[in-house]
Amino acid sequence: MSITLCDKNRSDFNFGEVLRNEKCEVFVINLDRRPDRWEQISKHLNELHCLNFHRVRAVDGLKESPELARKIIRLESEKSNYEVPTNRQFGVLGCLKSHLKALQLASQILNYQDKALILEDDCFFIENAANILKKSFNELNSDWKVLMLGAIYGTSPGFVIKKTHLMRVYSACAAHAYVVNRHSCSLMIRRIEDLLKSKIIFPVDEMFTKYQQIEEWYATHPLIAGQLSGNFSDIDEMIKVNTNECFKLGVTINLKIWLWMKIRPFLSKLLMEMSRRVIPIWQCTRDKFEANNLEEIFFQKK
Fold first, then answer.
1. Residue 267: how many other CB atoms lie within 10 Å
2. For residue range 78-104, what is the model confidence (pLDDT) as tens digits?
3. C-alpha dihedral, 214 to 218 to 221 to 226, nearest 10°
């Protein structure tokens, strides 16, 4: 699939500069058997002036232990032969261990850097991402744990808009682009290690949602990172379809919810005023129904 990720007319060529000013190092997860993706993401980041980024050699789930892969939570369609792990279970396990590896590498450099950006190799950034990211960083408070640059929202409320370029997330999946700080990096390493020791193992982004309810997890507003469609997913063993469209839909929904929050107070007042006018009419109509005088209701006689 051919797609133009960046061109000379884009206004976010200082994306790399924003990361450097924030002392944010970039780590990209990539499988050895996917050099096409490494070439694609490298070109994209170079065009955004992210000149220094680290390749994280991803863990190939297909080479992992079947005993461990069987602990990955199954989908409804996979609840047949529990003894044989599915390719998706191996993929989820590899993805989880790959993020653990990326965070471990990041923890080694966070002694002199403030933040680390973890990317999956099918990630891309929208136009004007640099400006939005810079403003999101400026709006973060001192207690933040993770800043998600892309997400898919789950159960309501998936997020609450806190500031102009910042959302507080409560049910946000996806792990293709997120920023951690020194403290949260160490915290997430311990959590993934504990998860791998548990009886049931969840995908890394489902683990995220567990802690979003109780900690300061944020996302940029609007979201600035999507995942390319048309790529073969090494986790789901299938072609990704319309992932960019889902991402764009998510941004559209964000804007609609923001608009709803703005007009809701005025709409509430309008409904209250209407109710004061309609209730007397309804009371009169109900009395007529109780009298079984339908002819008088629907065919008003002169």
1. 10
2. 565 556 678 888 999 999 999 999 999
3. -110
Consecutive H or E run containing 57 = strand 53-57
pLDDT of the residue at 3: 37
How far apart are alpha carbons 210 and 67 in whole angstroms? 25
Could you give the dihedral angle defined by the CA atoms of residues 252, 255, 257 and 263, in that order, rounded to the nearest 10 degrees? Answer: -140
Q: Bridge-partner residues for 169, per DSSP? A: 159
Residue 226's beta-bridge partner residues? 124
Residues 6+ apart with CB under 8 A from 275: none
State CA 121 to chain mean position distance.
Answer: 15
The Cα angle at residue 129 between residues 123 and 130, in degrees rounded to 5: 120
Sign of CA dihedral 197, 201, 203, 209: negative
**Helix or strand or coil: residue 59?**
coil
Nearest to residue 136, comparing CAs of 199, 266, 144?
144
In the chain, what are the domains?
Answer: 15-241 (3.90.550)
Mode of pairing for the β-strands spanning 24-30 and 115-120 = parallel
Grade residue 19 by pLDDT with cuts at 50, 70 and 90: very high
DSSP assignment of 69-121 equals: HTTBPPPGGG-S-TTS--HHHHHHHHHHHHHHHHHHHHHHHTTT-SEEEEEET
Q: What pTM, to 2 d.p., does this model score?
A: 0.74
Average pLDDT, the chain: 79
Percent of the chain with pLDDT over 70: 69
